[in-house]
Write the structure tokens for this entry.
Amino acid sequence: MRVATRPAGYGRRWPAAAFIPVLLAGGVVAACTSTPSTFEGPQYSDETRQMEKELAAEATALGVAQGAVGIAASFDRTGIGSLVAGQVGMAARNAMMVRAEKRMQAQVEKDNQEFYRRHGIAEVAENEELPPKGRKPKDRKAP
């Protein structure tokens, strides 16, 4: 009677370095695919579209780095590496989102002011209350 043997390499753990080509290929594919800009039209400048591309590239790079760290942390038998990597990755993502939001708000405000200036529209104050569409502003009576 013949005893079944295990295939060669069965039970052997893969070193983390074996995943580097996969991560690099994923990064290249992610960098090559681009989404259409959400800032199309004459009211947005080329600077805004360029900043959008830069922020998307930064997000992609952070995602690839988080993936690499996650794979490396998965080899930790205690699981502590995954806990730490998850929390650090989330903190980095949140910080990047806050920074990107501030940069984009400033750039869009700059574009808005340029649009207003180009079309002869007086600057709209941030606190100015505009009436809802379809309604006339109510006259305020003095007390």
Summary: The two ends are 105 Å apart (CA to CA). Residues 80-118 form the longest helix (39 residues).
